[in-house]
Amino acid sequence: MVESSFSVVVPASTANLGPGFDSIGLALNLYMTVDVSPSEVWGVTYKDDGFEDLPTGEDNLIVKTITDIARRQGRIAPVSRLIIQSDIPLGKGLGSSATAIAAGIEIANQLLQLDLSAKERVFLGSKYEGHADNISAALLGGATISYFDGVEMDVVHIQEPKMGAVILVPPEALLTEASRGLLPGQLSHAEATRSSAAGNVLSAAIARDDWEMAGRMMEKDVFHEPYRKKLFAEFDRIREICHEYDAYGMTISGAGPSLFVVVKQGNECELAKRLAVVFPYYECIAVKPSIAGAVIN
Predict the structure, then answer these.
(1) Is residue 74 packed enough to be buried (19+ CB in 10 Å), middle (13-18) or exposed (0-12)?
(2) Measured at the alpha carbon of residue 38, what is the angle toward residues 33 and 42, in degrees to the nearest 5?
């Protein structure tokens, strides 16, 4: 077992990209860094504002992930202290829980010297999350298109997507459970077929790095956008203005409450500035894909 100090860096992620519901993820260049060192008791310290309500002991999500993986291996993880810095807003549709779980998996893999493969780490994280979209992007980086049913998993990994994006972040957080509660129990066959077709073309466009086409498909979702859009101030107007500013497309980031706008590579900073003027309710953040996933330093 490893008892020396090390760090793990994990990117944020956005999921779904419209009709790629629970299957498409994209790593973003906002990061959580966890410094790990030996300790007599489990302890977690957050160095940034906004994390005051998170547990700081054995009930912390990162620690729970580490200790559960050790238990599954019939092992006990070396007790550690975690010091965390993070650019990733909590509860804002940027995969903060997946980032924490990914960090826990990487730390357990390092502490216990498990030598888990990338696919094994993604499968393990998907079981914790219940789906593979955010966790696969957080662990692998780039864009990921995943199938996961609890037993089997396959992932297509696009390492270096060539696009830029803007995230519109509202002041209020939103629990994923509350957002999922807005979704219907069933869709008609025609609705599911139409959104599935959009998801298929979206996946192919991402694989070809055709983000103009991907942006069009992002806006054809009927799996969740019609039921969640009411949560967003000025949703339709934001989409209209994004089109006026030559964005490829706009959709909900994950389960919300943030919005994700995809643009031509290099145009993200200018669009963020423009949207911040028109929509001051939102914090507008220019982002790029994170090519690297979780990394141990």
Answers:
(1) exposed
(2) 80
- Tell me the mean pLDDT per 10 residues along the chain, length 297: 83 96 96 97 94 94 98 95 95 92 98 96 96 97 97 96 96 71 86 93 97 98 90 94 98 89 98 98 97 96
Extract the tokens encoding 121.
């780490």
Q: Is the peptide bond before 257 cis (omega within 30 degrees of 0)?
A: yes
C-alpha 196/C-alpha 198 separation (Å) is: 5
Query: Nearest-CA neighbor of 98 among 253, 217, 249?
Result: 253
Give the whole-angstrom CA distance, residue 89 versus residue 51.
Answer: 9
Q: Is 18 left (phi over 0), alpha (psi -120 to 50) or beta?
A: left
CATH of domain 164-287: 3.30.70.890
- What global pTM score does this model have? 0.94
Angle, helices 268-278/235-244, rounded to nearest 10 degrees: 140
* pLDDT at res. 185: 86
| C-beta separation of 143 from 225 below 8 A | no
CA–CA dist 4, 165 (Å, integer): 38
CB 217 within 8 A of CB 19: yes
Q: Where are the domains of the chain?
A: 6-159+292-296, 164-287
Which residue reads 């973003």 in tokens? 28
Residue recorded with tokens 């807005």: 182
User: What's the CA gap between 178 and 10, in Å, rounded?
Assistant: 26
Task: Report pLDDT for 173.
Answer: 74
What torsion do the CA atoms of 24, 28, 34, 35 make, to the nearest 10 degrees? 130
Q: What is the 3-state secondary structure (H, E, C) of 108-128?
A: HHHHCCCCCCHHHHHHHHHHH
Architecture category of domain 6-159+292-296 in CATH? 2-Layer Sandwich (3.30)
What is d(CA 230, CA 183) in angstroms, rounded to the nearest whole number? 12
